[in-house]
Design brief:
Blueprint: H1 2-105, H2 107-124, H3 145-153, H4 163-171, H5 173-198, H6 210-220
Helix pairs in contact: 1-2, 1-4, 1-5, 1-6
């Protein structure tokens, strides 16, 4: 019985020691896991912070490039509008000079067309003219309806150009023709550049602008 009792005590001690060692090992392992988990959480926080920094940098770069693209597009638009206005002014000046040259060369045709246009406008006012009744001798109470209609239109002279204006135009025909010729080369270059850019053929255009000038001349006359 004594031997059995001592053996039981020894087994109990070993069991207690083993259980104590297991408990210590468990606590050590839990401590190591806690430290490792804390390290992983710290690493995750650092990664998230880096991602946030990179995202902010990407957003800033994207916004900067968008603003740069918008600025460049606005600049191109302004340049295109300025160029379009300059080209329109060039064409308008060319048309005015061609019309002035045509007027100096054939004033009778322009005056005739002007008078025809005035007559058409007078005819359109016929129904709106006030009704008038002559009282007394016709020679003393003559009413010039045409003159009244002209006053309503603000037309005081039936001629488009006076003789003085035509004389001035004829004196400047050489200067106007030189300007037309100079602009014709510029307009031809613009049309050639537009044709090369759009790949379209502009009808009536030539390398020296002659056909274009002739067409415009016919329209101004």
């Amino acid at each position: 019985m004594d031997l059995a009792a001592s053996e039981m005590v020894r087994v109990a001690k070993e069991a207690y020691t083993y259980q104590y060692q297991l408990q210590l090992r468990k606590e050590q392992d839990e401590g190591d896991l806690t430290k490792e988990l804390a390290g992983l959480r710290q690493t995750l926080s650092e990664i998230k912070a880096d991602i946030a920094i990179f995202q902010a940098q990407m957003d800033t770069a994207h916004e900067r490039e968008v603003n740069r693209a918008n600025t460049y597009a606005s600049q191109l638009l302004i340049e295109a509008e300025s160029e379009a206005k300059a080209n329109a002014a060039l064409l308008e000046a060319q048309a005015l000079d061609i019309r002035a040259l045509s007027s100096a060369g054939s004033p009778e045709i322009l005056n005739h067309r002007f008078q025809q246009e005035v007559l058409k406008r007078l005819e359109s006012l016929a129904e709106r003219l006030p009704q008038m009744v002559n009282v007394g001798p016709a020679a003393e109470s003559h009413v010039n309806v045409l003159s009244i209609a002209r006053q309503m239109l603000g037309v005081n002279d039936t001629r488009l150009y006076s003789e003085e204006e035509l004389s001035q135009l004829r004196g400047r025909m050489g200067e106007i023709a030189a300007r037309i010729k100079e602009r014709s080369s510029q307009i031809a270059k613009l049309m050639a550049a537009d044709e090369a850019q759009n790949g379209a053929v502009v009808p009536g255009s030539t390398s020296d602008g002659t056909a274009t000038q002739s067409s415009t001349n016919g329209g101004g006359a």
